[in-house]
Design a protein that fits this description.
Elements lengths: L2 H10 L5 H7 L3 H5 L4 E5 L8 E4 L11 E6 L2 E12 L9 E2 L2 E2 L8 H13 L4 H8 L16 E5 L1 H5 L9 H12 L2 E2 H7 L2 H9 L3 E5 L19 H12 L5 E7 L5 H8 L1 H5 L3 E5 L6 H11 L4 E4 L5 H13 L4 E4 L11 E7 L16 H12 L2 E6 L4 H8 L4 E5 L10 E6 L11 H12 L3 E5 L8 E4 L16 E3 L4 E3 L6 E3 L12 E4 L3 H11 L5 E4 L9 H9 L5 E5 L12 E6 L13 H13 L10 E6 L5 H24 L7 E9 L2 H15 L6 E13 L2 E10 L2 H15 L9 E6 L6
Parallel strand pairs: 2-5, 10-15, 10-16, 11-13, 11-14, 12-13, 14-15, 17-27, 18-25, 18-26, 24-25, 26-27
Antiparallel strand pairs: 1-2, 1-4, 3-4, 3-6, 7-8, 7-9, 19-23, 20-21, 21-22, 28-30, 28-31, 29-30
Helix pairs in contact: 1-15, 4-5, 4-15, 7-9, 10-11, 20-21
The chain binds zinc ion (2 copies).
The structure holds a DNA duplex (12 and 12 nucleotides).
Length: 758
DNA sequence: AGGTATAGTAAA
DNA sequence: TTACTATACCTG
């Protein structure tokens, strides 16, 4: 690593894990001693490493796959270190069974990234590896099995004449084609007869051979670039100047300010140099539209990577990244681990989106690890958002990131006007104020579209007994069950349990059960009563469950003409609604008084993102925010000053209350059928952590959702002003935890930089 | 994780 | 007694 580069890395991730220094320090004593072993990373969720003997007849280098015995089974692992002094005695070591690769499947830089991730998130290396390596490579077949093959004539094939195929026109055709040049597998399969090929190979006239995947060849722009605004041009210049060095940028630009065009114009100069570009998106749903814009622009291969790919497609993308034949890869979280041959730039769109952090198992944040990767690769990284996270804004404030701002909408049109609708003075009709309904009518009459945002799917959040007030609850969670009218079920949105709608009250036996509260399914029904002539499109997880449903609903919305569009937060995620001129935010009051310190930030982002859907076409937009609390500081701030100013004051508040991003945090979670066991275990963790008084504790506390799927849930928060302090303590406490018998009786996990405090 | 030895328990 | 299931334990 170059000194300049290392400095920058520590800039963003200033910490030193105890494990890292243990692992990476070369042990010269071991080199001299007779017994040395190799350390292998194995796909098991264990926080230890495993060492093996390398039989003298075998040779292996770091980063190659090996097959090893493990208990009573065999596993494929990756050589992580050579010549280590084993941490168990010589007799306990088993020999490596086979070496699979001659050249590493994981390059050094990627191994460094994975080691870093395992240390930083205090997660077993084996599971980190599992997240990074395509499933097919974990099966242990040689790489050659997956590389493309081509066909050519053998010497005897070259010696024969066309006349020898007089009885088979198909064979003649293929043979003749091969006399001029070798043909790759795909060409032969698509243009020639399979049986002819088989016969020619049986006669040993044709043979197959392995080919290399060649780096891409850039053939220029496929469509002209758009004219940039002054702001956009500045942003492009700034990032271009950072080519070849690690430098993080934050691109803050309101919806419609042309962030994507900035991304697109950063790419050609890198393609000229043969470098690769990684574009990370928070959700699969955003890949199609992004793929379309990128592949339309460049005559170079643009690939996608996400969890819906088959194992084969995944490996293919992985190999193309490794060989340099992929120019641009557009992908979700785990694309971050692709083995690029020469990465020139990382772009993260919607960097504020919580989906960028994995919510189970290995809980990494793709944005944060991407910054680390950019540092290792010595390339710039650009984070884009209309509503940047407080983390990134703080990094700008601290001088770690360079902030680039796009102030105006690229089309020159005005930002939508935001108006609060005070519900206290109003008689509501189906949850809508008279004022909202009147303005909806007005826009629909003009042939415009109206969008309604309601972040609650289903028909109603619960059913209630009219006689005794009993509410339908989930048997296994401390939560009500949502009534879904269409599927005639009560569904628990926390554990997924469903049951038929009861005829009688569970408390008093009354049959007078009625829905309480309103979800999207109910609002849809009411809208078609209020506006019988207007088509309604509902976008939520239920209406888009069917394969292809999402795309067809989006297509519906792209049609001009009056339409009501209603949906959940799905509406906030980067899709274009060209004919929407009015957005009605039906009810977000629940989020105004949440206990989660991140709730205001998330609400601010959500409101701004939803509001941004108004007036992206030619018409000026308007946003109506219905609320019982029009005087609430957050709403006032957002309405009067916009997101940027709101975020500044929110960040100031975090500073004053000593919360992230101004402090570093980690969270222990515990889950068990017996509540006391969780509390007891977390108390043990808390007690141990008291040895470091500079790390503040909060808890053990019951989680906001006390019981989920039959298990009680507790958490313990840890906060520290300095990252190294916190991480050293975590390493120590984890070593301790593995010795406790209680640790095996409950399910526990550690969440570093936890975002979701549920 | 996943395989296995072992303890616990219901039927025959 | 056997047959099956829940649980503790271990992996180099
Ligand atoms: Zn439930
Ligand atoms: Zn009742």
């Amino acid at each position: 690593m170059q000194p300049e580069n290392r400095k920058s890395t520590e800039f963003c991730f200033a910490w030193q894990g105890a494990r890292a220094s243990l692992n990476l320090k070369p042990d010269f004593v071991a080199m001299e001693a007779a017994v040395t072993a190799i350390r292998v990373a194995l796909p098991v969720p264990l926080r230890q490493h495993f060492d093996y003997l390398l039989p003298p007849e075998l040779e292996v280098s770091i980063g190659c796959r090996v097959r090893v015995p493990f208990g009573k089974r065999e596993l494929v692992g990756i050589v992580w270190q050579l010549a280590v002094k084993p941490d168990v005695s010589e007799q306990q070591l088993k020999p490596v069974l086979a070496v699979i690769d001659q050249t590493p499947v994981l390059p050094a830089l990627l191994r460094q990234l994975l080691s870093f991730a395992a240390d930083y998130y205090h997660h077993p290396l084996g599971e980190v590896l599992t997240a990074a390596l395509p499933a097919l490579l974990r099966e242990g077949r040689p790489l050659a099995d997956y590389l493309p093959r081509a066909y050519r004539l053998t010497d005897s094939g070259k010696a024969v004449h066309l006349q020898s195929f007089s009885r088979s026109a198909k064979q003649a055709e293929l043979w003749q084609a091969l006399t001029t040049q070798a043909l790759d597998e795909a060409t032969v399969k698509s243009h020639y007869s399979g049986s002819a090929l088989k016969q020619l190979m049986a006669k040993e006239l044709v043979e197959s051979f392995q080919t290399e995947i060649a780096p891409y060849h850039y053939r220029g722009l496929a469509e002209p670039a758009l004219q940039l605004t002054a702001d956009q041009a500045l942003a492009v210049t700034a990032v271009n100047q950072a080519q070849g060095s690690f430098r993080p940028f934050l691109l803050e630009g309101v919806t419609g300010s042309g962030k994507t065009e900035v991304y697109l114009q950063l790419i050609p100069s890198l393609l000229e140099l043969g470098q690769q570009i990684l574009v990370l998106l928070p959700e699969i749903g955003l890949t199609p539209q992004t793929l379309e814009r990128f592949s339309k622009r460049f005559r170079a291969p643009v690939l996608v990577w996400h969890s819906n790919l088959s194992d084969g497609e995944r490996l293919n993308c992985w190999l193309q990244a490794a060989s340099g034949s992929a120019a641009v890869v557009i992908g979700t979280r785990s694309a971050l681990f692709l083995p690029f041959r020469k990465l020139g730039l990382i772009i993260i769109d919607e960097e504020h989106d919580l989906s960028l952090k994995q919510q189970d198992g290995f809980r990494y944040h793709a944005r944060d690890l991407a910054i680390k990767r950019a540092a290792l690769e010595c390339c710039p990284i650009l984070l884009g958002s209309a509503t940047p996270s407080l983390e990134s804004l703080y990094n700008c404030q601290q001088g770690r990131f360079t902030k680039l701002t796009l102030t105006a909408r690229a089309s020159g049109q005005a930002m939508p006007q935001l108006e609060l609708v005070d519900l206290k003075q109003q008689v509501l009709q189906y949850g809508l104020a008279a004022q909202s309904i009147q303005q909806m009518h007005q826009q629909l009459k003009l042939g415009k579209q109206v969008m309604l945002f309601l972040n609650r799917r289903g028909f109603a959040p619960a059913l209630s007994c009219q006689d005794c007030g009993w509410l339908t609850e989930c048997q296994r969670c401390s939560a009500f069950t949502t009534y879904h009218k269409h599927s005639r079920q009560l569904v628990c949105h926390h554990c997924g349990a469903t049951r038929a709608v009861p005829r009688q009250c569970g408390g008093c036996g009354s049959t007078r059960l009625a829905p309480v509260g309103q979800g999207t399914e109910q609002l849809e029904e009411h809208l078609s009563v209020l506006f019988p002539e207007v088509p309604v499109t509902r976008l939520d997880r239920d209406s888009t469950r069917r394969k292809g449903a999402f795309a067809s609903l989006l297509a519906e919305i792209q049609q001009p003409g009056p339409r009501l569009i209603l949906g959940t937060q799905m509406l906030a995620k980067g899709h274009h609604f060209p004919f929407v001129t009015l957005v009605v935010i039906v009810d977000v009051d629940g989020a105004l008084y949440s206990a989660d310190f991140r709730a205001p930030e998330q609400l601010g982002q959500l409101l701004t993102q939803v509001a941004g859907r108004a007036g992206r076409g030619h018409d000026k937009g308007k946003v109506l925010l219905q609320t019982q609390h029009p005087e609430h500081a957050l709403l006032q701030d957002i309405m009067l000053n916009g997101y940027a100013a709101f975020a500044r004051s929110a960040l100031l508040e975090r500073q004053q209350t000593l919360l992230p991003p101004c402090q570093y945090m980690a969270l222990f979670r515990a889950e068990a059928h017996q509540s006391e066991l969780c509390q007891q275990w977390l108390q043990q963790v808390a007690s141990y952590c008291q040895q470091q008084p500079q790390v503040q504790q909060l808890g053990p506390l019951l989680s906001p959702l006390e019981r989920r799927a039959g298990k009680y849930r507790w958490q313990l928060h840890l906060y520290a002003a300095q990252r190294p302090l916190l991480h050293q303590l975590l390493s120590q406490v984890l070593a301790e935890v593995s010795q406790w018998p209680l640790s095996r009786k409950i399910k526990w996990q550690l969440d570093v930089d936890a975002l979701d405090l549920n």
